[in-house]
Write a structure and sequence with these properties.
Length: 523
Amino acid sequence: MEMSVGGDTEDSRETFFLLRCRSEVATLATPEGLTADVRERGAHTSLSSPHRTTAVGSGWHQQRSRRQVANTVHLFCPAQPQRRLCHLGDSPDCCARMGPLLPFIVLCLGAAVPHRVKGPCHPNPCHNRGTCEISETYRGDTFIGYVCKCPQGFSGVHCQHNINECEKDPCKNGGICTDQVANYSCECPGEYMGRNCQYKCSGPLGMEGGIISNQQITASSTHRALFGLQKWYPYFARLNKKGLVNAWTAAENDRWPWIQINLQRRMRVTGLITQGAKRIGSPEYVKSYKVAYSDDGKTWRTYKVKGKDEDMIFRGNVDNNAPSANSFTPPIEAQFVRVYPQVCRRHCTLRMELLGCELTGCSEPLGMKSGHVQDYQVTASSIFRTLNMDMFTWEPGKARLDKQGKVNAWTAGHSDQSQWLQVDLLVPTKVTGIITQGAKDFGHVQFVGSYKLAYSNDGERWSVYQDQKQGKDKVFQGNFDNDTHRKNVIDPPVYARFVRILPWSWYGRITLRVEILGCTEQE
């Protein structure tokens, strides 16, 4: 049924509404004493012939128009106090029954029509902010005249049902779904994040690789041995560090030792790996510890047992060499992280790595180091061969972060600013960061000191990443040695299938090992 309010006729007391009927039941009623003037709206309606009998429901009366209006029939409405429209399901006594129906107009005539009939969408029958639309709509065999357009999260004829979004299992990677009104939420395991726990957030933040610089690592004290010749500085506290002095050790008289990492920006920290070391041949390690965090380095909060106002004590190491990992659920979001050793074997000696990601998520390695990105996906402008020997070919497929061996990186065949290293990610990908590393060629240190970044979706038309403030090509700072990782955040990120690193300055030859950070997400 489609209904719309009309305007006044030549009789100022008249008002009308339009009914589009596709059912055999037309339901309408007017206040007592009024007449319904039914006027033809279609060439073949049964009302078009004054000689054809029109079936009228019980309580209704039919006669020819006294005003001799062509093709017009008067219906006298039964008594319906305080009723304007006969609703479906009511007694058929208040309804006109007709044969094949086409659109017609009903004019309710009388001495007092207090207001216009507004139709089935007034008031709005749809719940939860559903939109009512006039429509030729059936519900089974019943003609209802409107349809409710439901907002996302609701269903039902009148949008009365809240959809349980959790039935579709939207939370990935072990996330727990909680249904809400027209929405849902996912409680993610500590190492995942995102609306659907789709982003992995457990990558190393840079203690082992060197992204976290020495200046970012401080401690309450430093142990000095052998008459002060050995200094176990906090910046030695890097996971798997080698050497005679290869960890941080607190001073013997330090009763409340701590070691602190300044991440330089708020990050999401989801875990911590700890490791001991040997000092003068004796195993030393941290057996248990607490963790605190801060946004300004002044006001600190200690990590608590979930649901309790009780400091969490994490289990540490059981020997000097095997790493021990603990996850933070919920994760920490902070710029500064401190580790407070609680119980130590001999001295409090520690090597460590923080795990996590950028606050936005989507900053996981895309596969250069792991091999997920295969050799054929990595190409370059040129290739260098040491001593012009094939066995010492520094091909692009070797440009993988932390790759080991005598030939363990890509080196360009020419030393100029037209060189490039390209990675085909196969699908458009959100790229949020680049990690670079140099290498050694027979003892010669080689690395890229700065570079530009280009990206493309077809491998032919390229855009160079821009410095948003200066309005020109962005030059990223690269490495200062052959081994340390250098991470650059791409903010805002780029969405592309192809990524090119364009070396801009270098030491020795142009040599790169890289990792690309991001996630497979359409723009």
